[in-house]
Amino acid sequence: MTLLLLITLAIGLDLLIGDPRSLPHPVVFIGRMISFLEKSWNRGTDSQRKRRGFLLTATVVIGVWGVSWSVLALLTAINVWLGLVAELWLLATTLAIKGLADAGRAVAVPLANGDLPGARQALSMIVGRDTAALDEAEITRATVETVAENTVDGITAPLFFAVIGGAPLALAYKAINTLDSMVGYRNERFEKFGFASAKLDDIANWLPARITACCLWLGGILLALMASKPLRWKGALRATCQEAPRHPSPNAGWPEAMVARLLGVQLGGLNTYQGAISRRATLGEPLAPLNVTHIGATIQLMHVGWLLFMGLMGLLWVGVR
Q1: E strand or H helix at 278, and its extent?
Q2: What count of other Cβ atoms lies within 10 Å of the Cβ of residue 170?
Q3: Is 228 helix (H, G, I), strand (E, B) or coil?
Q4: DSSP code per residue over 58-85
Q5: By C-alpha distance, which of 135, 167, 199 is closest to 66?
Q6: Rounded Cα gap, residues 143 and 140, in angstroms
Q7: Which of 116, 303, 315, 319 is the most exposed place for a label (fewest CB within 10 A)?
Q8: How far apart, in whole angstroms, are the C-alpha atoms of residue 82 and residue 216?
């Protein structure tokens, strides 16, 4: 029960202060390690780069788990309370509940005020696509997609691994996620070297993404019953199962398709990255035109979804124990 209490306190800490820039963040150090090793190892033939990519993935993930476990064990040996406080802080750094909600609102506020340049600028801080020419509907779509997808990466998946293995395993997951974001690209530089990192990220997110979609659906039902949102939950679960595999990511399509169905909007379509057009399969139905109100609705779904996810994980943890 101590671990569940620590995770609950970590959630509260993240909701209260998020990730203060004045404090060191483990992901920053993980990113520096990946960058250093990538510069040293990402060279040679394709087969050599692929093998070194597997070595990079193993080194970073196992290293992060081992170091965090050892540090916590040492601090606990010195003083139990010191170890608990350290684990609480480490757990909080793996979560991005406040950060994700704030990022969505940072786009929504100028958009609601008709400030398209301000909304585009705020959006450019959280997405990789070109934002300079986007209108309200496309800004909204990009924000909704980002909040939905990152509900898994930034909230539910870290909670999933934290419940299983505490802060060390949650940090190992963040290492996997960071590896994918830095080297998991299908381009000339990273296609071979980042292969292992991308595949491990797919594996790590497989179950959390699908559980999250179910929790979002249950959250949609609760919000609809409370009459706070006219969410279209009937048939959303079946439609999500059919549509999610269309997404180029084996996992991102699940929360995105579920949010699209619950809101009655269509996500996906054309995106532009550094001038290159990328076509994404559409998810959901355009029953309502995308507008700024859908950003707030997505943030609300995100909160209800992770609350249900954490409740489910807690029940499973107690049942197994």
Answers
A1: strand 276-284
A2: 28
A3: coil
A4: HHHHHHHHHHHHHHHHHHHHH-HHHHHH
A5: 167
A6: 5
A7: 319
A8: 36
Cβ–Cβ contacts within 10 Å for residue 2, how many? 9
Q: Tokens for 56, please give them.
A: 């990079």
Q: Could you tell me the CA-to-CA distances from 108 to 149, 286, 289, 303 in Å, in that order?
A: 17, 20, 16, 17
How many Cβ atoms sit within 10 Å of the Cβ of residue 260? Answer: 32
Residue 17 DSSP class: H
Whether 263 contacts 288, CB under 8 Å: yes
Question: What residue type is assigned to position 161 of the chain?
Answer: F
Chain segment 240-299, per-residue pLDDT in tens: 999 999 999 999 999 999 999 999 999 999 888 888 888 888 999 999 999 999 999 999
**How many angstroms separate the CA atoms of 172 and 143, rounded?**
27
User: Which two three-digit tokens encode residue 74?
Assistant: 């040492």
pLDDT bin (cut points 50, 70, 90) of residue 314 is confident
Sign of CA dihedral 56, 252, 216, 223: positive
DSSP state of 264: T
Structure tokens at 122: 């705020």
Crossing angle of helices 136-151/116-124, nearest 10°?
30
